[in-house]
Amino acid sequence: MLLMIQIIFIGIFATLFMDVIAYIREKLFQIRSLNYAFLGRWILLWKDGTLTHENITLVPVVKFERVIGWFIHYLIGIFWVYVYLVLDHLLNFNSLFLSSISFSLLTTLISFLILQPALGFGFFALKTPNPLISIKNSLLAHLFFGIGLYLSYMWIRPMF
User: Fold this and answer.
1) How far, in Å, are 24, 54, 85, 104 from residue 92 at the CA level?
2) 97-122 pLDDT tens trace
3) Residue 37 CB coordination number (10 Å)
4) What are 73-96's pLDDT values in tens digits?
5) CA-CA distance, 78 to 84, in Å (whole number)?
6) For labelling, which of 19, 46, 68, 88 has a CA lying 20 to 30 Å from the CA of 95?
7) Total structural domains in the chain?
């Protein structure tokens, strides 16, 4: 039970760190991150059996999509922390910092191979106007999640 509480807090703070950096990047450099309403829209439309879209941005807004999208975003962060800590337990990572960064960058593959195609953006965002910029931004977002994972782990773990 204690471990699950740690996982939840680390996941929330790692995801929050990623989001704060995304907010700063948007304010300083006008670099927009994924609109999590699209994630919510995608999830909410599963009930209709719609798992993929030609372009999710053209699909009508669904009630509560923004709230659901943000909730799922944080739930995914918690899930990835759980997976990371299970792998750390099994593989005994030597460097928590390097392993958290490497792991978080690997999670980008899920976005590239599942989420982006399902939203209609193509594998590796190839259907977006600037795929390389989309790829770079996804990698940076996940890099910051990894840094947040490391910082949160170092801060929260000793408290319990």
Assistant:
1) 34, 42, 9, 17
2) 999 999 999 999 999 999 999 999 99
3) 19
4) 999 999 999 999 999 999 998 889
5) 10
6) 19
7) 1
